Amino acid sequence: MPLPDESRIVITGIGLTAPNGNSLTEYRENLLAGKSGVVPFETRYMPPTVAGVCDFEVTRHQKRKEARRGTRAGQVAVYCANEAVVDSQLDWENTAKNRVGVYLGITEHGNVETENEIYEITQFDYDTKVWSHHHNPRTVANNPAGEVTINMKITGPHLTVGAACAAGNAGFIQGVQMLRLNEVDVAICGGVSESIHTFGIFASFQSQGALAKHDDPTQACRPFDVNRNGIVVAEGGGICTLERLSDAKARGARIYGEIVGYGMNSDATDFVLPSAERQAECLELALGRANLTASDIDIVSSHATATEMGDIQEAKALHTVFGDRESLAINNTKSFIGHAMGAAGALELLGNLPAFEDRVAHATINLTDPDPNIALKQLVANEPRELPKVDYILNNSFGMLGINSVLIVKRYEA
């Protein structure tokens, strides 16, 4: 039996900043054109490296003083949330702000400010008198979502969802649940990341032997390729407005897609190494919630980070669930922008949503020599692929400590 419109949750607005685009239109054009956003990058204590760096108009939705008081993650969140509301064409002035919720996925928060403040006091013989009085509100875990509520005068609930690199999907899932519980009427949700501004994340990946290197930064991120050598760290944000279908229809809103299924579970095996078995179970959980079978899915947006075990284990999970069905298209967005951590899942989903209209799966770039241990015949390599139909998109996001998330979005037809 189909769900009533009051229980169906749809995407009505999109705001994003990615290393290769600051709007859905620009981002999608660059994905289809094969344009990378990875550039040379330098950070404290580290040799020159590469990263996915965003370049958006910070002061479009907040004053310069407000931006300085807050965090980089807050700047990203404020920009994307405002852009999503503008795109949704909500009558924002007359929207009941106590019925709006903000749910943003993050990988980590507070590292940037703590590193900066510690560095600052080293310049003053560790005198804590120079420690910023803004440190506490900058480093609390709810900061990015809280900055959005202050900026947009939202008095409903706000949360950041700490879910490692599964966080973008987790933000959407939280929004869906709160709408279905009638806790809010509008959910502003997704994921954000300021990861490139902490040297610690680069140093940690380097110590693991998992930090990507390449003479050409645009070719550094190489998921599924035998010559991959690690992760490209990126920043960014992807935020949507979600509404119940009944409300969206009542105001004649544009609908990008309907969230019809999701799954989250835990590997319960290792701090870092993933479990193909648990990932496959998460995929099946999402399909079951959506009342779908694997044959219904047209595009799978893969999580693959360009680490050997991560890519291989996800490929095993995908093969377990989808087999060798040739009509399926599997792609990867990190090859263009790097790994945007808490924002990764959100940006990867949003970059694929226009396929409902143009029926094109964007490519996985830099896939010149596929790893023979990855038996995925459906990978879209280097050039976009036209598809006969795109009705369902499935988005994978997996994270450290074995957290897995899967989201399924359906083409909306009135």
Descriptive notes:
- The chain is about 35% helix and about 20% strand.
- It has about 425 residues and is of the alpha/beta class.
- It folds into two domains: about 5-250, Thiolase/Chalcone synthase (Peroxisomal Thiolase, Chain A, domain 1, 3-Layer(aba) Sandwich); about 260-410, Thiolase/Chalcone synthase (Peroxisomal Thiolase, Chain A, domain 1), CATH 3.40.47.
- The longest helix is centred in the N-terminal third of the chain and has 17 residues, at about 70-90.
- It is globular.
- The two termini are about 20 Å apart.
- The model has no long low-confidence stretch (mean pLDDT about 95).
Please describe the topology of this protein.
Layout: E1 9-17, H1 24-33, E2 38-41, E3 49-52, H2 64-69, H3 72-88, E4 100-106, H4 111-122, H5 135-139, H6 143-152, E5 158-162, H7 167-180, E6 186-193, H8 199-207, E7 236-244, H9 245-250, E8 257-266, H10 276-289, E9 299-301, H11 308-322, E10 329-331, H12 334-337, H13 344-352, H14 355-358, E11 360-361, E12 385-386, E13 392-399, E14 403-410
Parallel strand pairs: 4-5, 4-6, 9-10, 9-13
Antiparallel strand pairs: 1-7, 1-8, 2-3, 6-7, 8-14, 11-12, 13-14
Instruction: Walk across the major sheet and give the strand order.
Output: 5-4-6-7-1-8-14-13-9-10
- The portion of residues assigned to helices is 25-40%
- Low-pLDDT parts are none
Rg from alpha-carbon coordinates: 20 Å
> How many structural domains?
2
Q: In terms of structural class, how would the helical and strand content be classed?
A: alpha/beta
User: How large is the share of residues in beta strands?
Assistant: 15-25%
Gap between N and C termini, in Å? Answer: 18 Å
What is the element string, with H for helices and E for strands?
Answer: EHEEHHEHHHEHEHEHEHEHEHHHEEEE
